[in-house]
């Protein structure tokens, strides 16, 4: 099932379905009052065993209300922003335990720092995002996609950042993908955090698209600054 509204596209998938007699029970996707609601089968009644549901989302930037803990008993909710304009959620159940499940609301909102930049041959550019002061009490979520013309690639030449440091860079980060993959898989993406200055970098795209995601919270940081150039494809 695919639903599209106000620049947001959601697609559901079920890799396996539970069956109760002639009734097939699926995860449900609804669009009400400008928001999408994705719920587990039978919610708020217990979900069945052997359920595998997926949700793919493409938008500008998203607000997602999800359980603070993604397993065990739901006690409260949390608002979460997703930096990238594409992401995937998967829900799976085993053959033993059943619970009430989940009700996730998803809302696409506009963002001034989600941009696609169409560059010309042999040009250069800068992506610069300021840091947040402690008193701003908000998070910054940005994504830039730099597109080279046909026959050219994007080369990331320098990267300067000052963000909070955390294990796995989960608090604040700069995430880079050189292959045009909008879901930023861990095996082919590069993540940076902390106070670092990289000069003379040689990261070159493989498909002409440089994707950069930045997440900054309300800590005292100086953000990030990246420079890039458009070079001829010599592969």
From TrEMBL:
InterPro entries: CUB_dom (IPR000859), Sperma_CUB_dom_sf (IPR035914). It holds the Pfam family CUB. The keyword Iron does not apply. Residues 113-231 form the CUB domain. Keywords: Disulfide bond, Repeat. This is CUB domain-containing protein. It comes from Scylla paramamosain.
């Amino acid at each position: 099932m695919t639903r599209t509204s106000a620049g947001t596209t959601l697609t559901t998938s079920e890799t396996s379905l539970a069956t109760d007699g002639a009734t097939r029970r699926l995860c449900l996707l609804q669009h009400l009052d400008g928001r999408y609601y994705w719920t587990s089968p039978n919610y708020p009644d217990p979900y069945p065993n052997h359920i595998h549901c997926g949700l793919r989302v493409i938008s500008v930037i998203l607000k997602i209300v999800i359980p603070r803990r993604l397993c065990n008993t739901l006690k409260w909710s949390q608002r979460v922003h997703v930096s990238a304009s594409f992401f995937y959620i998967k829900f799976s159940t085993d053959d033993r335990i059943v619970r009430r499940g989940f009700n996730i609301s998803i809302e696409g909102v506009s963002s001034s720092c989600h941009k696609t930049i169409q560059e010309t041959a042999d040009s250069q550019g800068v992506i610069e995002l300021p840091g947040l002061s402690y008193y701003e009490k908000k998070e910054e979520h940005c994504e830039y996609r730099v597109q080279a013309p046909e026959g050219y690639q994007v080369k990331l030449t320098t990267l300067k950042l000052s963000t909070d440091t955390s294990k796995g860079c989960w608090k604040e980060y700069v995430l880079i993908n050189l292959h045009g993959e909008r879901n930023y898989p861990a095996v082919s993406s590069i993540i940076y955090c902390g106070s670092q200055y990289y000069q003379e970098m040689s990261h070159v795209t493989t498909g002409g698209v440089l994707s950069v995601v930045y997440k900054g919270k309300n800590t005292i940081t100086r953000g990030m600054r990246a420079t890039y150039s458009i070079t001829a494809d010599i592969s």
